[in-house]
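Review form for a predicted model. The reviewer records the input and the model, then writes brief findings.
Reviewer: anonymous (R2)
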Amino acid sequence: MSPPVFTGLSNYTRLASDEQFLRSLWVTAFYVFWTIIPVIGLSFVLGGLLSTLGRSRSVWRFLLYLPSILPFVSVALVWKLMFNQRGPINDALNSAGMASIPWLTNSAYAPWALIFMSWWHATSYYTIIFLAGFLTLPRDCFEAARLDGAKLLPMIRHITIPLMRPTIALVVVLATVNGLKAFVFQQVLTDGGPANATQILTILIYKTAFSYLDMGRASTYSIVLFGCIMLLSLIQIWLISGRRDA
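Model under review:
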């Protein structure tokens, strides 16, 4: 590795024309968007259903939270076997009369394979957060609405969602930040491939620093990623404090 050389802001000025960086930025945004939207919806529903359970709630809470406490690398290796050309997922497709899908070796399917896996893993964590939010809601509001003849969907729209807004804001920002910081699943399953189709920013930073040994560019990418995460964290604080003030 050569000695460090001061380059001023040249690494930042070249970002707009850095095709590798722009490609990774798009892959990261695609992954984060398609991860958080289904995960938040599914977690919200599961959290609401869990809050209605009685004694069995503890058992279901443990089972749903189990994926979150498993080691990331172990989870990624298991899913890598499941997405194998001769793995159980393709076996199930073959049994249904469908052709096998090259989940991890085709640039069209690999991003979606990682997104599907993230749904399974992330839903468990955010369901517990939503459950905690549901359990703190005042029951008298719902009882009064039922006495007035309110139906389920209007109650969810006009009572549950407004009261759950701080929890929803917290989960949205946490899911976005965790999506931006994702690394292990992409590294183990595809290493950013095929054809850089799953090379999110953290993978690009790792390769630039330790494979290409270009610490300057890697530091620039890291600062950009840090700025995105800090901006989203500030939005979270603003949303939560604004709700409390209201």
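Findings: The chain is about 75% helix and 0% strand.
Further findings: Residues 92 and 169 are 38 Å apart (CA to CA).
Recommendation: see findings above.
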